[in-house]
Amino acid sequence: MAKDTSWEKSSQWYNVHMKEDGGYNHRELVLPNLLPLLGLKEGDSLLDLGCGQGFLARAIEANIDYLGLDSSKSLIEYAKRKEQHSNRHYKVHDVTYPIDRDQKFSHATFVLSLQNISKADLALKAASKVLKEEGQLIIVINHPCFRIPKHSSWGFLDNFKGQYRRLDRYLSPFRSTLQTHPSKGTKSPTTLSFHRPLSYYIKSLKDAGLYVEDILEISSNKSSYGKAAKAENFARKEFPLFMMISARKKKSL
Ligand SMILES: C[S@@+](CC[C@H](N)C(=O)[O-])C[C@H]1O[C@@H](n2cnc3c(N)ncnc32)[C@H](O)[C@@H]1O
Cβ(74) to ligand 1 under 6 A? Predict the structure, then answer.
């Protein structure tokens, strides 16, 4: 049987980390780029795959119908408890399996979840099946070219003349186990991440009947101070943290 990729064991930590309106990166980098890209309007409906504790539902307008799916029972419970609108629903569901739904969605999102799902190609196919023709699907992932779990890092040139990004591997997909609380060592709960090259995502979208219409690369907006500041601030802008891929479902001929 496939290893459980849910965040059940880290759910309490994740809920606290995300608070009501998301952690720093969600608030400062993800939402300000994702919401305009989605452009949701009255009458639209959003399927949020790997929704966690439902932060996205709380960031969109109340007149948008919303279904959040996640394989972690506790995260779905947290989402339900925070919910105040009757057109918002949450379900425990492994999104690599077909989604039982008659009415199709105008929009679908995988916000920092596809990189935690083992069979991402199956998840994209399942999402595409319940998307309307020309419906929009957005994937938000850690930048697959510059953030490679345990295989990318920063380094400095002599006397902080420059900061470089070091990559030790890229093209081969692999699975990585990450500790939620590194200070607790082997007693820490862990989550699974899956590195894939950019071509994997583009091919999987194509195989799921979706075409790419836009890609955003998003850098951190933080600033450094001190002797390495110039090099760090330059490198931070040059090497984006996140990638957003916007795709649309092809019309059937
Ligand atoms: C980093 S969290 C992101 C949650 C949320 N989208 C957010 O941005 O806060 C990754 C989520 O993917 C969920 N997940 C992992 N594998 C899954 C699967 N096969 N089906 C559904 N959800 C899954 C985890 O349970 C977790 O909630």
Answer: no
